[in-house]
Design goal:
Number of domains of chain B: 1
Shape of chain B: globular
Largest sheet of chain B: 8 strands, parallel, barrel
Helix content of chain A: 10-25%
Structural class of chain B: alpha/beta
Number of strands of chain B: 10
CATH class of chain B: Alpha Beta
Order of helices and strands of chain B: EHHEHEHEHHEEEHEHEHEHH
Number of helices of chain A: 6
Low-confidence stretches of chain B: 18-28
Order of helices and strands of chain A: EHEHEHHEHEEEEEEEEEEH
CATH architecture of chain B: Alpha-Beta Barrel
CATH topology of chain B: TIM Barrel
Number of domains of chain A: 1
Number of strands of chain A: 14
Strand content of chain B: 15-25%
Number of helices of chain B: 11
Strand order of the largest sheet of chain A: 2-1-3-4-14-13-12-9
Helix content of chain B: 25-40%
Oligomer: heterodimer
Mean pLDDT of chain A: 93
Strand content of chain A: 25-35%
Largest sheet of chain A: 8 strands, mixed
Radius of gyration of chain B: 17 Å
Radius of gyration of chain A: 15 Å
Mean pLDDT of chain B: 88
């Protein structure tokens, strides 16, 4: 397994994702240095935090251009986790309208509580696979994953959607397109099932 | 689809010392807490709450070194509370591996802290912890500073205020029931859960699996926390989950 770079937005809990990736047999580098991304075999953008602040910090550190270069230009395997998946979208609507990385056509909008589901969506929930993806290879489809979020990415292209979760209406819980992957849940906090997703990603 | 109910063991730093019968030596307390984290991890516990209930009373902030060590082994969601006074405290806790931060005394003394934390890190990582006592007339009153200071406030009003400020979740603890294992204060839990739209974690008093079920079905909580029941009896989160599953609650697979 090569070098895994975990992108540091300075906002969130990086120890858990770093430790989880270590447990999966890799040695990740947590970094906010654009030059480190050039050496990476895999890039992980984790995330807890607010969309505008995360984008502001990524931009300020020159990470938006460098990540785009690596992920879109050089097709390095990329995994966005939670907010990291949302940032892949075109635009975020959390507190203010903010431009995202714009790798996936779609906007990030609040979960809809009108059906009576409580928001934020906090807890263990199932993911329904709607398309083949290497991320979920050999994982029991009944396994639950841990979610903590109030917003979700709504991709405009159905082909990018690999899993959905029926909560607060329904939202996209995983996407994959080419070398880019995103999961709305937290694999690093989903114990065995989450580790299986991380191992599948690291094997790409 | 209803969300799966969560069963959350609560580790109180004080309890962790007591469980192992060790003194108040900080390093040894980490050892005992670490053991608990590893066991809960192995048993696929839904979520863990770690509360340093002495921090505010001792005038300390969070014990970051301790949280850092514990979080490194915690591959389940971890909520940390105790002594959190500022946005910087929250950031420091998130950076050492907490997933959510629980605010108690400061959230009630200074509700704008909740707003500041939610704006900066998102509502999903802000748990406001409300400790309440039942008065003789049957009403409830919120206490802060580990239950030592009467705020004169009503828990429902505090809960709604916290929700307005951007709290993502409420941990509602009955001080009278805490440690008794005689069941939750269901009226308290239900009054709060019905007054807000964010998830409520029932806490304080669970002693049996039936107590957990009651917190969910009658109390309308989204999650149930228990400390003494898991630390001082033979009951386990796994069996609790099995029981709740048999009772028709949606449990995690």
């Amino acid at each position: 397994m090569g070098r895994v770079a975990i992108v540091n937005t300075g906002l969130c809990n990086l120890d858990s994702i770093a430790r989880a990736i270590e447990e999966c047999g890799s040695s990740p580098t947590v970094t906010d240095e654009p030059s480190d991304l050039g050496q990476a075999s895999h890039i992980v953008l984790p995330g807890v935090g607010a969309f505008p602040e995360a984008m502001r910090r990524l931009r300020a550190r020159g990470l938006v251009d460098e990540m785009t270069e690596q992920v879109i230009g050089k097709q390095i395997p990329f995994l966005g986790v939670c907010l990291g998946m949302q940032l892949m979208g075109t635009v975020g609507m959390e507190s203010e309208e903010t431009q995202g990385l714009a790798w996936i056509d779609g906007s990030v909008t609040p979960l809809d509580p009108t059906g009576g589901d409580r928001v934020p969506h906090i807890g263990w929930n199932s993911v329904e696979l709607v398309r083949e993806t290497p991320l979920f290879r050999d994982i029991d489809p009944k396994r639950d994953f841990y979610f903590v979020h109030s917003y979700a990415l709504r991709p405009s292209l159905a082909e990018t959607v690999t899993a959905v979760t029926s909560y607060a209406g329904s939202f996209v819980s995983a996407i994959s397109t080419g070398n880019m992957h995103g999961v709305q849940f937290h694999p690093e906090k989903s114990q065995q099932a989450g580790f299986a997703v991380l191992r599948n990603f690291l094997a790409l | 689809m209803p969300l799966k109910v969560r069963i959350m063991p609560t580790l109180l730093y004080k309890d962790v010392g007591l469980v192992k019968g060790i003194g108040f030596d900080s390093w040894r307390r980490i050892g005992a807490a670490m053991q608990a984290v590893k066991v809960y991890n192995l048993r696929q516990v839904d979520e863990l709450v770690l509360l340093d209930i002495r921090a505010t009373l001792d005038g300390r902030g969070p014990d970051l070194a301790m949280v850092d060590e514990l979080a490194d082994e915690c591959f389940m969601p971890l909520t940390v509370g105790g002594g959190v006074r500022t946005v910087d405290d929250v950031q420091a806790l998130l950076q050492v591996g907490a997933d959510k931060v629980s605010l108690n005394t400061m959230a009630i003394q200074n509700p704008s802290l909740v707003r500041d934390v939610a704006d900066r890190f998102g509502s999903q990582c802000v748990v406001v912890s409300i400790d309440a006592r039942r008065l003789d007339d049957g009403t409830h009153r919120v206490f802060t500073r580990a239950g030592t200071e009467d705020t004169g406030l009503d828990p429902v009003a505090v809960a709604q205020g916290a929700e307005r400020q951007g709290a993502g979740e409420l941990l509602v603890t009955s001080i009278d029931r805490d440690g008794t294992m005689g069941g939750y204060d269901i009226e308290l839990i239900r009054a709060v859960a019905e007054a807000v739209r964010i998830p409520v974690i029932a806490s304080g008093g669970a002693g049996t699996y039936q107590d957990l079920a009651e917190g969910l079905s009658v109390g309308h909580a989204s999650a149930v926390a228990a400390a003494s029941m898991f630390h001082f009896t033979e009951r386990t989160p796994l069996e609790a989950k099995r029981y709740l599953g048999e009772q028709g609650f949606a449990i995690r697979h």
